[in-house]
Amino acid sequence: MPIQPGYLELAGRIADFLAPSLAEDWPMLPVERAEGVYLYGADGRQYLDYTSGIGVVNVGHCHPRVLQAAQAQMERMVHGAIGITLHESLLRLCQALPPVMPEGMNMFFFGNSGAEAIEGALKLARYVTRRPAIIAFEGGFHGRSYGAASVTSAKVKYRLHYEPFLPGVYFVPYANPYRCPLGDEPERAIEWSLGRIAKLFEHVVAPEEVAAILVEPVQGEGGYIVPPAGFLKALRRICDEHGILLIFDEVQTGFGRTGQMFAAQTFDVRPDIMAIAKSIASGFPLSATVASRELMSQWKAGAHGTTFGGNPVACAAALATLQVICEEDLLANCRRMGSRLLTGLQELGARHPFVGQVRGIGLMTAIEMIRTGHGREPDGERAMALLDGCLQRGLLGYMCGTRGQVARFLPPLCVTADQIDQALGIIAESLDAIEAR
Questions:
Q1: Rounded to whole angstroms, how far apart are CA atoms 182 and 178?
Q2: Distance CA 320, CA 65 (A)
Q3: Are 399 and 350 in contact (CB under 8 A)?
C-alpha cells in the first residue's frame, strides 16, 4: 500500500481540495484536538479559543456530558427522518426548550444550521401574514443560502454576483451609536434607524405589505454592535402597531452568550419568531425556527420540510447542552467573566489612540480599530495585526465588521478568571506591539 501523507502535509495541500470560499480564510489553524476553552494545535501548542467555534461551543469543547449523551444515542439510533420516524431525544428536547425560551415561544421546526432557521422564519412569516415584504438591517448577517443571503448586508462579498435575490427585501440602518450620523447619543441612533423605517413606509413600501422585521438583537458579523436599550422595544412597538411579525436572529446570541439564555430576555423584548442554532447542540448540526403554538400551527403540513433536521444524535447533544448550561450555572459565569473581560479590554483600549471603541455584552466582546488622524475611518489592517499578534501568543479571536475593522473575542461560557486574565495579557502585548511599529 502507498504511504499515506501525514496530517500537516494534507493541511498544506488544502487549497487543492477545498473551494477557495472555504480554503481561503484565516488562520486555517491545524488543530488535533479541543477541550474546554483550549485548542491543541498540530504544532504542539495550546491556544485559548476565544471564538468558541464562532459561537458554537458555549459549554466548551468536548464537554463530557454532551459527548456521553451523543454516544449513547448513536448506539441506539443515528438517523431518523421526522415524520417517517419519531425518536425520543427529539421529544425530550421539545419538552426541555420552552421553559428556557422567551414566554410563549413553545413550538419548533428543527433544521441543521442557522441559515436554515432563517429560511424557515422568512417562509413562516410570509405564509401566515400573506404579506410579501421583509425589512432587514444594514450590517446584518443571516446566512449564505439564497433566502438568508437576500436579507444579509454585512459585507458586499456575500452578495456579489448572486443577484437577483428574493424580491421584497428592504434595508434600513441598525441603531449603532458609534457610527450614527446624528451623533453618539443612544437616542440619536434609535432616531436614525426608526426614521429610516418611517421613510420606507412613506415612500417605498406600505406597512400593511410588510410581513416581518428581521433583526439580530446584537449584530454579529456586522461588528458586534450592541444596540441602545430602547431600540428593540421600539421595533416591537412598530410591529404591534402595523401587524408586522418581529423576527429575532438569535443564532449567535442564543444559549447564554449575552448573559441570559437568549438576548430577547436580556433586552426584555419578546419576538414573534426566533431563529436559533450554533450553540444549541455544542457542535452537532441542529437549529430551529421557533414561534408560539398559535402562530406556528398555521404552517400547514407540507408547507416546509426537512430530511436531517432534528437528528436524534444532535437532539441528544442539545438536551445535554441545556442541562450543562443550567446545572453548571454558566449564565451567571458568563455575566461575571463578561464584565471582567469587557472592563479589561476597555482599560487596554484607553491606552491606544487607534482603538476606536471597545464594546460588548456578556461574553460577546469586540475591539473596533480606526485610522489615527482620520476620524473614525475603519482600520481593517490594524484589526488583523491584533488578531495575528494574539494568535502568535496563543489566543484565537476572529474578525468582523463591514471592513474587517473589528476583532471579536467570545470565549466559551465556562471560561475562568485566570483564562480571562491570560487573554487580556496577550491582547495587551499585541496592542503594544502595534503601537511600537
A1: 10
A2: 6
A3: no
Regions in the chain scoring below 50 on pLDDT = none
All cell numbers assigned to 424: 487580556
What predicted TM-score, i.e. pTM, was given to this entire model?
A: 0.97
Instruction: List, for residues 397-422, the tens digit of each pLDDT value.
Output: 999 999 999 999 999 999 999 999 99
Q: Residue for cell digits 420606507?
A: 200
Gyration radius of the chain over CA positions: 22
CATH architecture of 64-327: 3-Layer(aba) Sandwich (3.40)
CB 86 within 8 A of CB 315: no
**Backbone torsions φ then ψ of 406, nearest 5 degrees:** -115, 130
Q: What one-character DSSP code corresponds to residue 51?
A: S
> For the chain, what are the domain ranges?
7-59+329-436, 64-327
Q: Which CATH architecture has domain 7-59+329-436?
A: Alpha-Beta Complex (3.90)
What kind and span of H or E run contains 135?
A: strand 133-137
Cell of 65: 456530558
- In sequence order, which residues have a C-beta less than 8 Å from that of residue 432 and are 6 or more positions away? none
Edge-to-edge strand list for the sheet holding 273-276: 107-111, 287-291, 273-276, 245-249, 210-215, 133-137, 169-172
State whether residue 265 is helix, strand or coil.
helix
Side chain identity at residue 33, one-letter code = R
Residue 134 phi/psi, 5-degree rounding, is -125, 135
